[in-house]
Design a protein that fits this description.
It catalyses: acetaldehyde + NAD(+) + CoA = acetyl-CoA + NADH + H(+). This protein is an alpha/beta fold. Helix content is about 35%, strand content about 25%.
Length: about 290
């Protein structure tokens, strides 16, 4: 079967890392990269890799006749509001890596298969992809009245797009903790750590459980370990920092994400888990479109 043709909109850190991952895919072929700065490193690398490149923006490229099967939007929440309308009118599948949330939230480890027919899906945030699976792992065992996550990333791994979207990050991640994670109330906090040398992405997840006791603790811990193993199938550097800690009705979980180092250093696990989750969705979407899987 021919690979689906993919377009990447956004030539920054995420877009460039995404291109490198897609070049390894058996299901998709990155064919276009669209940016706004003709001198950007991402566009230069894309051109060298054989992609068609443009600094004229998505609207101009679509107007010129380009028709990809899938478009990854790695720009900003504000820009995606415009892009979503263009792609919907063109009938092109949109995979949104900004916190714009024009389509349903997708956390690759939890609800990917529910949205393979959606014309626009939102990959939430890096913190969401890393922590919502853990909240879900707890809530599928016992009710969670409150879930809180603290995502810490290296300041050097936060590009202009990430910094512009900080407010959307906290709002979107908080909603995902509730709607996908299963917590009745969710809260998200992000910290840009300026330490040098930079640290790996590290997240702490707190869940207040509606029941407690040794039997509950054992089931919750087993569920968490199963979820970590599942995420590792597409993010190899995802792991627990330590065993979960239980105290009364609260469980505390600490994880870290080491990137593959495709474009940026391995400490940028926050970028790696976003692009890996987007590739995971796109490959499952491509399989879903395949006649073999109909």
């Amino acid at each position: 079967m021919a690979k689906l043709k993919a377009m990447i909109v956004g030539s920054g850190n995420i877009g460039t890392d995404l291109m490198i991952k897609l070049k390894r895919s058996d299901w998709l072929e990155p064919a276009w990269m669209i940016g706004i700065d003709p001198a950007s490193d991402g566009l230069k690398r894309a051109k060298a890799a054989g992609l068609e490149v443009s600094a004229e923006g998505l609207q101009a490229v679509l107007a010129a006749g380009a028709r990809p099967d899938v478009v990854f939007d790695a720009t900003s929440a504000k820009a995606h509001v415009r892009h979503a309308k263009l792609l919907r009118e063109a009938g092109i599948q949109a995979i949104d890596l900004t916190p714009a949330a024009r389509g349903p939230y997708v956390i690759a480890a939890v609800n990917l298969e529910e949205h393979l027919e959606s014309e626009n899906v939102n990959m939430v945030t890096c913190g969401g992809q890393a922590t919502v699976p853990i909240v879900h792992a707890v809530s599928r065992v016992v009710g969670v009245s409150y879930g809180e996550i603290v995502a810490t990333i290296a300041s050097k791994s936060a590009g202009p797009g990430t910094r512009q979207n900080i407010d959307e990050f906290t709002e979107t991640t908080s909603r995902a903790i509730e709607t996908i994670g299963g917590a009745k109330k969710g809260k998200a906090i992000i910290i840009l750590n300026p330490a040098d040398p930079p640290i790996l992405m590290r997240d702490t997840i707190y869940c207040l459980m509606e029941d407690s006791g040794p039997a509950v603790y054992q089931k919750v811990e087993e569920s968490i370990h199963q979820m970590v193993a599942h995420v590792q199938t597409y993010v190899p550097g995802y792991r627990l920092n330590r065993d979960p800690i239980f105290k009364d009705n609260m469980v505390s979980v600490s994880i870290e994400v080491e990137g593959l180092g495709d474009y940026l250093p391995v400490y940028a696990g926050n970028l790696d888990i976003m692009t890996a989750a987007a590739v995971k969705f796109s490959e499952e979407y491509a399989k879903h479109q395949s006649p073999v899987h109909k």
